[in-house]
Specification:
This protein is of the alpha/beta class. It is about 25% helix and about 25% strand. The chain contains four helices and seven strands; from the N terminus they run αβαβαββββαβ. The protein is globular, with a radius of gyration of 15 Å.
């Protein structure tokens, strides 16, 4: 985690988190969008920030959601980068020694519902995984510190996600390649 060196566009994206509630990292395929977002998520969940970090910092354990189009895509994207690939969990961007629990999801092989992470403040952070295909209702009811949309969400789900962070002033970011126009 502390050896991550973002390229200029990634560094700018991270830094904008200090002043902007909503951000997007838009680039071509396989250029590090999801990886940069996973590194940022791991920093927030743990409270471990490198010296160069100019973005938002969480001094207490935050609660996040991360999602994509389907549970399978969420598992193969955000979950894989944060936790590690299937069969090699605890090898992802979140340091293994700080993962306190991995709660499995139902219905999708090797999918995770929530990862609990020890934050340097002494409490426990969390990231819960979601899927756009579950509809807007599945994105209701929580108060969160942030949401990472990995791939472009439908507008109703984005709005619902943004509402989850209103009272906390939380951060919402999207990483995607513009394939839908």
């Amino acid at each position: 985690l502390l050896f991550y060196k973002p390229y200029p566009k990634q560094a700018e994206f991270h830094a904008l988190g200090a002043t902007h509630r909503e951000r997007v990292l838009l680039a071509g395929n396989q250029l590090g969008k999801t990886y940069a977002a996973a590194m940022e998520m791991a920093m927030h969940l743990t409270g471990l920030y490198p010296e160069w970090w100019a973005g938002k910092r969480y001094a207490r354990p935050p609660r996040f959601w991360a999602g994509s189009e389907t549970s399978e895509i969420t598992r193969d994207g955000a979950q894989r980068l944060l936790l590690g690939p299937t069969g090699a969990w605890k090898t992802g961007t979140i340091p293994a020694s700080l993962i306190t629990d991995v709660k499995r999801a139902r219905g999708v092989p090797d999918a995770v519902e929530t990862i609990l992470v020890k934050h340097i403040s002494g409490g426990t952070s969390s990231v819960t995984f979601k899927a756009y295909k579950d509809g807007r209702i599945a994105w209701q009811a929580e108060t969160l510190d942030g949401i990472w949309f990995d791939e472009e969400p439908p507008l109703d789900i984005y709005g619902e996600g943004l509402a989850r962070t209103t009272t906390t002033g939380g951060r919402v970011w999207i990483t995607f390649t513009p394939a839908k126009g």
